[in-house]
Amino acid sequence: MAFALLDQIRSIFDGDPGVRKVADDPVLSAELLMLFRMILADGSVSESEMVAFRRICKEAFGIPESSIDSVIEYLNEFGYETNGSQAVALFRDLDLERRKQLARHMAEIAKADSQLAETEVRLLRRTLDLLDISPVDVVKPEE
């Protein structure tokens, strides 16, 4: 109980720990921006896409559930400075498995609402081309 209170007090002075984590990691920021762009690709934000985004944030990146709204706000405020090509450029030099992870997460977001829009397909295809990843790698289970 005392530790939770100390964490809350520190959060007030230091900022949200999830936002700090994202702000301190340009690759993580870029990935979350790409996922958010996938959510917006079809012109609407569905609840199922947001559920998938929140789950990826929590499970893949260890962002606490209590921080996700603040992380989204951070991405909205600072994400306008980075376009999709700039975000993907951060991934080009990363190992193949890390690039595949980005593509899988994007595909998961796109499929979350059970309606794969042409704009989502184009964004995913363009990202796969930029990352030099085969579409087979996205649908193939992780080894």
UniProtKB/TrEMBL annotation:
Pfam families: TerB. Residues 33-138 form the Co-chaperone DjlA N-terminal domain. This is TerB family tellurite resistance protein. It comes from Mesorhizobium qingshengii.
